[in-house]
Design brief:
Number of strands: 22
Helix content: 10-25%
Number of helices: 10
Structural class: alpha+beta
Radius of gyration: 27 Å
Mean pLDDT: 84
Largest sheet: 8 strands, antiparallel
Oligomer: single chain
Distance between the termini: 62 Å
Shape: globular
Length: 478
C-alpha cells in the first residue's frame, strides 16, 4: 500500500531539510540586477531542468534524473519521498482600454514598479510514503499530473483604480516517480535504493520552434530535486562512506543528480538528491539575511550592489517578480549590523599547543597534523608567513618527502568538492609549490601532466590544489 500523506514527525524532519532544498529550488531564479531586461535573465533556469522527452531526445538536456544510494532499513521501515520542482507560469501584461476591454502590452508603468512579461515559477510537490519491503524486486511507479491553469490578477494604481491585469498561464505537465530497492550480498543488511524522476509530458514543439528552449520550459520540470526519509534505519554517505561500503558506493549510478545526507548533523535518516553538487548535511549560513538567488556572487557584495541600483532600476526589478521585489526591499532595509555580519565569520577556535612538526620551513607552523604553530604567535599575525617558502617547503606523503618538482598521482575522490575531480582521478601531475593556509592545512599546487597550457599556468601562478591525502607520490621526472 502506498500513501501520500506524511506523518507529523516525518514532516518535521523534512521541514529542516527544505531550508537547503529551497535554495536548490530557486538557485539562479532571478539574477542581479534582478530585471527581466538584463541579458543574464533572458536565459532562464539552468539546474535540474527535465524537458519533455520528444523535445530533449536530440539535445543535451535531459528528461530524467536517476538517483542511487545505499540504505540500512530496519524491519518494517517506510520510505517517505518528496519530489520538488518549479512549474513555469507564463505571465503576460495587459492594460485596460477606455471601453473596459484589455490589450496585451510590453510593459505597464506604475509609481512603484514597471510590470513586464515574465516566467514565474510555481512550486510543486509530489509526496508519497511506501513500505520499504514493497520496493524490492520491480518496485513501484507513481505517476503524477498537473493540468493547464489560467489565472488573472487585477493591477491597481495608487488610487485603487484598475489600470490593467496580469494573466498567468501554466501548461500541462506529467511525470512519473519510479522507486525500487535490491538487497546487496555481504555481512551487512544493506540495500541499494534507486529513484528515477521522469518527465513524461506528451508535447512536441510547434512547427518552426523545434529548437526553441523557451517554448519547452512551460512543459518542463524545473530545478527538480528529491528528498527521501526513512522512519527506521539510515542511509550511508555517498561522499564519505565506511571502508566496507566503498565498493558498493562506487557501483551506484547517479545521473544528472547527486545524493547527500541532509537534515541535522549526526543523523543519517534523510537524503537530498540535488542537481547541484553539495556536501553532506548542507546548511544555510546563519549570517545570510535572506534569499538572493544568485550564488555566483558573495552576499555582501550582492547586497551592496543591489542597494546601489538607481530608483528606475529598482522599479523594473520590483515589477519583474515578487521574489526580485523582496530582494530589493531587503537590500534597502538591511541594518548596518546585519551587513557587517556578511563580511566574514569565524566558525570555531581551538587551543594551540605543542612543538613544531615535521614540515620544513615552519618556524611559525600551523596547528594540524602537518605542523604546530609556536604558542607565542597569534594565527592572525601577518608575520607568521615569514617562516614559509613555497619553493623550498616539503611535506611527508606516504613516508616520502614531496615538494616542488615531485610527481604525484591524483586521488581526489575523498572529498568530491568539484565535479572536475571526476576527470582528474588517476592523472599524474607535477608539484609546483607547497602552500599553507591560516587554518593549518597544507595544499599542493600542481600542474597536470600533458596539459598543453601548463607553461602558461606556471607563468600566471594558476594551479590546481590538492591536500596531501589526495595524492600518491610516483617516480620519474615530469
Amino acid at each position: 500500500m502506498t500513501v501520500t500523506a506524511f506523518a507529523p514527525e516525518t514532516e518535521e524532519r523534512l521541514a529542516l531539510a527544505r531550508q537547503v532544498a529551497d535554495a536548490v529550488l530557486f538557485e539562479g531564479y532571478v539574477l542581479y540586477p534582478y530585471r527581466a531586461s538584463a541579458a543574464k535573465n533572458r536565459l532562464r533556469w539552468q539546474f535540474g531542468v527535465l524537458v519533455p522527452p520528444a523535445w530533449g531526445a536530440e539535445r543535451e538536456e535531459h528528461d530524467f534524473q536517476h538517483t542511487e544510494c545505499l540504505m540500512e532499513p530496519r524491519a518494517g521501515a517506510t520510505l517517505a519521498v518528496e519530489v520538488r520542482f518549479l512549474h513555469a507560469r507564463r505571465r503576460t501584461v495587459q492594460r485596460v482600454l477606455p471601453d473596459g476591454d484589455f490589450e496585451t502590452v510590453d510593459e505597464l508603468g506604475l509609481d512603484d514598479r514597471v510590470l513586464v512579461p515574465w516566467d514565474e515559477g510555481a512550486e510543486e510537490r509530489v509526496e508519497l510514503v511506501v513500505p520499504v519491503v514493497q520496493l524490492l524486486g520491480d518496485g513501484i511507479e507513481f505517476p503524477f499530473h498537473r493540468g493547464p491553469v489560467e489565472e488573472t490578477e487585477p493591477v491597481l494604481d495608487a488610487a485603487g483604480r484598475t489600470v490593467g491585469r496580469l494573466v498567468r498561464r501554466s501548461a500541462e505537465v506529467s511525470g512519473v516517480v519510479r522507486l525500487c530497492a535490491s538487497e546487496l550480498d555481504g555481512p551487512y543488511r544493506v540495500s541499494r535504493l534507486t529513484a528515477v524522476i521522469e518527465n513524461t509530458t506528451d508535447w512536441t514543439a510547434p512547427e518552426g520552434h523545434a529548437a526553441d528552449r523557451d517554448a519547452a520550459l512551460p512543459h518542463s520540470l524545473v530545478a527538480t530535486h528529491l528528498l527521501m526519509a526513512l522512519d527506521a534505519g539510515n542511509f550511508l554517505s555517498m561522499t564519505d562512506p565506511p571502508e566496507w561500503a566503498k565498493g558498493a558506493v562506487a557501483a551506484c549510478r547517479n545521473l544528472h543528480t547527486w545524493p547527500v545526507l541532509a537534515g541535522e548533523p549526526g543523523r543519517a535518516d534523510l537524503v537530498l538528491s540535488s542537481p547541484i553538487i553539495l556536501e553532506d548535511h548542507p546548511a544555510i549560513a546563519p549570517e545570510s539575511p535572506g534569499a538572493l538567488y544568485d550564488a555566483t556572487e558573495i552576499d555582501e557584495i550582492l547586497a551592496l550592489r543591489t542597494a546601489a541600483l538607481t530608483d528606475e532600476e529598482k522599479r523594473e526589478a520590483r515589477g519583474t517578480d515578487a521574489r526580485a521585489a523582496a530582494v530589493i526591499d531587503l537590500a534597502d532595509s538591511m541594518p548596518a549590523e546585519v551587513l557587517e555580519r556578511l563580511h566574514g565569520a569565524v566558525r570555531g577556535l581551538r587551543e594551540v599547543t605543542g612543538e613544531p612538526g615535521e614540515v620544513s620551513g615552519q618556524s611559525a607552523g600551523f596547528p594540524d597534523e602537518y605542523g604546530v604553530r609556536r604558542p607565542d604567535t597569534p594565527w592572525w599575525d601577518p608575520a607568521s608567513d615569514a617562516g614559509f617558502d613555497p619553493e623550498q617547503d616539503r611535506v611527508m606523503v606516504d613516508g616520502r618527502s614531496v615538494g616542488k618538482g615531485s610527481r604525484v598521482e591524483l586521488r581526489p575522490g575523498l572529498r568530491h568538492t568539484d565535479a572536475q575531480d571526476l576527470f582528474l582521478q588517476g592523472r599524474t601531475a607535477s608539484v609546483e609549490a607547497v602552500l599553507h593556509d591560516v587554518d593549518g592545512t597544507v595544499h599542493l599546487a600542481v600542474t597536470v601532466d600533458g596539459d598543453p597550457g601548463a607553461d602558461i599556468r606556471r607563468e600566471q601562478g594558476r594551479y590546481l590544489y590538492f591536500q596531501p591525502d589526495e595524492v600518491v607520490p610516483v617516480e620519474g621526472p615530469r
